[in-house]
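cron nightly-structures :: item 1 of 1
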Amino acid sequence: MRGRTVIPIKEPVPDDVDSGEPRHPLQAALGQRVRRLRARRGITRKVLAQLADVSERHLANLEAGDGNPSILILQQIANALDSPLAELIGDETTESPDWLLIRDLLKDRTPVQLEAARNMLNKLFGSPEARDHRLDRIALIGLRGAGKSTLGRALAKHLDRPFVDLNREMERLAGCRPDEIHSLYGPAAYRRYERRALEEVLETRPLAVIDTPGGVVTEAATFNLLLSKCYTIWLTAAPEEHMNRVISQGDLRPMAGNKQAMDDLRLILQERTPFYAKADLLFDTSGKAPKECLAAVATAIDRMLAARA
């Protein structure tokens, strides 16, 4: 870079430990991150060992990629380095100065401020649709048993649009059911097919009502795409209704061999609620007949479409 002299710095390797190959790449990467953070703080290994209350030999082994510390020891080292444990383990937001500076700007912000920041970043780097254009594709999100399929088909008929079941699109692409994708190829493959199916629907369906899998919100890139391209409606219900509706459809898998099924369901709903809450519209289907749900949701959509027109 013009006007700047850059002097390369070679990371020193501990000289008092075994110089053989590290036992595992993860250990080698961890050791490198500890050395880099220590260098960034400008402290010696001896000082870090004293601050973290670990032996210098133990720390030397760790930095050489030949240590296998407990999570508690890692927390002590992270505290001594004044760093989050995630940074020590390998959070991608620690990979560059800009990542670190951005992370610091977002630290301790309120949920409202974080949402505003996300929207600004989406405008800067994404290709978000104008709000009125997102109404061309309406996506229903929520756990199984919320009524997405029933309401989605009725809403599509009301709006005279195609109804798209994203699970069926995944099945078409993979040649097997989504649960088989998950069991045969793993969760990573499942999420890839889910993303591909959504991208294809967005490319080929200018108008649609889309029924999405319950876990679509757990993959950030896919959920960002959905939020930017579709008007999203979160359908929710009491946990008991979620479970009863799924079972009434003849699917006994949620209860099979799992006495804690309701507790698991409540925990899933609790953990996903902050993500589902990013939807444009929330509608609780608890205790409501399908026609009542359709009337309420269709009225809200009709009003927005009328305002756009």
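cron nightly-structures :: done
The chain has a mean pLDDT of 83.
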